[in-house]
Design a protein that fits this description.
Number of helices: 15
Shape: globular
Strand order of the largest sheet: 3-2-1-4-5-6-7
Distance between the termini: 19 Å
CATH class of the largest domain: Alpha Beta
Number of domains: 2
Structural class: alpha/beta
Length: about 350
Amino acid sequence: MRIATLGNASVIHTRRWVEWFRARGHDVELWSLERGAPELRVRVLPRPPLPGLLRYPLAVPALRQELSAFRPDLVDAHYIPNYGLMAVLAGFAPRVISAWGSDLLRDPRRDPFRRARARFVLAHADHVVTDSENLAAAARGLGAPPDLVSAIPWGIDLSRFAMGKERESGLVVSTRLHEPIYDLPTLIRGVARAQRARPELHLVIAGDGSRRAEIEAQAARELRAGSWRMLGTLAPADLAGWLGRAEVYVAAARSDSTSVSLLEAMACGAIPVVADLEGNREWVSEGEGARLFPAGDDMRLAAGLEAVLADTAWRERARAYNRRIVETRGDAAINMPRVEALFARVAGGVRPHA
């Protein structure tokens, strides 16, 4: 297939997606207003210094011209308010719109304009792909025809994210971006509370984002000196190494669909202590593979850490349970071919029922 992918080229998930389809032999071109790694071969669109509300629609004429030359079998757009809207305005079909989480779970709730924009994009999609059932339900709630919505978790590379052989006592790892939605301030407060009872506990924070300086300053104020590190963005192999050594993976996101970071932690044997969100509950539940806490509640987060670290036998059972769950439902080698088959059916003019 000739696939025109529209998405944020600076995000690792976009890169993994494009590289997977290219490795399968498809002719994939990626258009983006954001620059990605040189080897990703991004077709960068004009990016005027304007708010996103205007910046993305104003890039549509350039996109339309390039799509006319490329003549795709399928337009594959990621994230509804920007690249999903661009795909619709460009006028090429068939088009598959992929929702990533906040574009359906939070953005449409902010005001009537954002809600109307989401409805408009969904109404003009030939198919909508989500990575979780809660996200699929949100798409249907905003008017997407039920038979044109598929929930297919992207999954992870289970050969890369493998169960670690040795654990580092007291090691807690965070791998989410340093952005407000991921609520690292609550995470740090919770770890600081837990350190009062368990001084051996130490925190490693991977990733990057717009709030990194603030997060680093808070960690310096609230965590014991020498008990924390900020690593920045890690290569997948390095990320897997840290998760394979960690006793606990912690995430305090305020909203989520299927978290790839959660699946990576589960596959590597880092026990999740995560916010009690519908997207997380599709994979883990309290006391069965994980400990959950109300979003924003650092006291309950600390209690979850203590519960995990206090019960060695439970941790071993949870690790084995979590690995089985990801092998059964979160294997990219199984799930991505399902997306590929759906794309082929849409490109061929057959209404998919995935």
